[in-house]
Design a protein that fits this description.
448 residues; alpha/beta; Rossmann fold; 8-stranded mixed beta sheet; 8 strands; 10% strand; sugar-phosphatase activity; His_Pase_clade-2; hydrolase; 4-phytase/acid phosphatase; signal
Length: 448
């Protein structure tokens, strides 16, 4: 095993120097109010019209972001997923981090759904190609993000010549603005309830034990790198009040089970066929249960107040700027921001959002799912913004059924914490703008 592979195992356990991109946990002050399973948002009142929508989406299923085929890794790899356990992980047939072939079809289905959904409300044509400049797509330069935007375009407007796609590497990343890893770690620990160890031994204990059974013994070299005696398993990875340990170590492997299942691998190959036995559930249910680890880890890392403000101000500014245009009736009425799970979590933290979508644990950011910021105009008065999360369930990702307004993906309206809710949980535009401005750190927003 290479030194880089050993380093990634130790780094995953300690939580040092890793960019965590993902999903759901509970803040210290939120443990008493778990979000409930989402249902379709209530219809807006009669006579209200949809002015436009800004969709903040996560990319679709991807290959592991850590190298899997370690012997062929070139140069000085950052790490290797195979360093986690003794049995090899499937590569899923793509370059690390790239969109899976199966993911294109799933995201394309989401595009068809957006077309049908928003044609009903009059901002998209029911048939044919859109009016020039009426739709707009944004992506950063990561392959999986650009390909996701293309798949959504393909699903919405097959055969149409649409060139309104902006690809910009720093579109969602602002300046460093004095970011401190120490302050980030302190904020995350507080947001996790004050102790990572308490979380690992409490609400995450069952999920950790199940994934430990799925992975099995770790490689002897990994045990040594972690300061453990061989044989060892993931459950032996030390976790303290301030160090996420086993939670961070198992976060990436937990989400990989969704990729394996969603890409169509036989259940006998998903998690080496051990998920059902390890959890006592069906494979899909077991994957959702195990992903409490990933959801908790990424929600805490990305939605804690410090990280949400310092890393999320730029993306919230992009969302707000696009909404401002929609409110003013300028430019495209449908705007698709293709991005990553960490950006959705940053925005969720800044706006005080909470969600739990069908088949997923709280605050999971499903692959190919999105938050739609819908601008609605009442017959009189200021417009309102309604936030709706839409995401395919774990089984929908695997089976890729047709999605329509009558048979939709999982849906949940997201009221904003500090806004007096209007119809269907909406927030008046003036209040939304004030809340967003107050939540952002101006120094963390890139000057145009």
């Amino acid at each position: 095993m290479r030194l880089g592979q050993l380093a990634i195992a130790a780094g995953l356990a300690a939580g040092f120097g890793l960019t965590v991109c993902g999903t759901g946990a509970l803040a210290a002050d939120a443990t008493a109010t778990q979000p409930v399973m989402g249902t379709a948002p209530e219809p807006m009142p009669a006579g209200w019209t949809l002015k436009g929508v800004v969709v903040l989406s996560r990319h679709g299923m991807r290959g592991p972001t850590y190298a899997v085929d370690c012997d062929q890794a070139k140069g000085n790899p950052d790490g290797c997923l195979d360093a986690v356990g003794q049995q090899p992980w499937p590569t899923l047939g793509v370059v690390a981090g790239h969109l899976l072939p199966a993911a294109y079809a799933r995201v394309r289905s989401m595009g068809r759904y957006y077309r049908l959904r928003y044609a009903e409300d009059g901002i998209l044509p029911k048939t044919g190609c859109p009016v020039p400049k009426s739709v707009y797509f944004i992506a950063d330069t990561d392959e999986r993000v650009v390909m996701t935007a293309g798949a959504v375009m393909d699903g919405m407007f097959p055969g149409c010549d649409i060139d309104d796609l902006v690809v910009q590497g720093d579109i969602y990343r602002g300046p460093s603005c004095g970011y401190s890893k120490t302050k980030s770690a302190e904020s995350a620990q507080h947001f996790a309830g004050g102790s990572w160890e308490k979380a690992a031994k409490g609400e995450l204990a069952g999920s950790i034990a199940a994934l430990d059974k799925v992975i099995g013994p770790l490689k002897p070299e990994v045990c040594t790198a972690l300061g453990l005696k061989s044989p060892c398993t993931a459950a032996d990875v030390p976790t303290t009040d301030s160090k996420p340990g086993v939670i961070n170590f198992l976060s990436q492997p937990a989400e990989q089970l969704i990729m394996q299942y969603g890409s169509g691998l036989p259940t006998s190959e998903v998690g080496w066929g051990r998920v059902a036995e390890a959890t006592g559930m069906s494979t899909a249910e077991g994957i959702g249960y195990i992903n409490k680890i990933h959801a908790f880890s990424d929600w805490v890392a990305n939605s804690s107040p410090y990280d949400a403000a310092h890393k999320g101000s730029q993306v919230l500014d992009v969302v707000k700027s696009n909404l401002k245009d929609v409110v003013a009736g300028k430019g495209a009425t449908f705007r698709f921001l293709s991005s990553h799970d960490n950006y959705i979590l940053h925005v969720g933290g800044l706006l005080g959002l909470t969600w739990k979508l069908p088949s997923y644990p709280a605050h999971q950011v499903p692959l190919g799912g999105s938050i739609a910021f819908e601008v609605w105009q009442p017959p009189a008065g200021a417009p309102v913004v309604r936030l709706v999360y839409a995401a395919q369930s774990i089984d929908q990702i695997r089976d890729n059924p047709d999605l329509t307004p009558a048979s939709p993906p999982g849906l949940q309206a997201l009221p904003m914490k500090d806004c007096k809710p209007g119809p269907s949980g909406s927030c008046a535009w003036p209040a939304f703008e004030k809340i967003a401005d107050r939540a952002m750190i101006k120094a963390c927003v890139r000057k145009s």
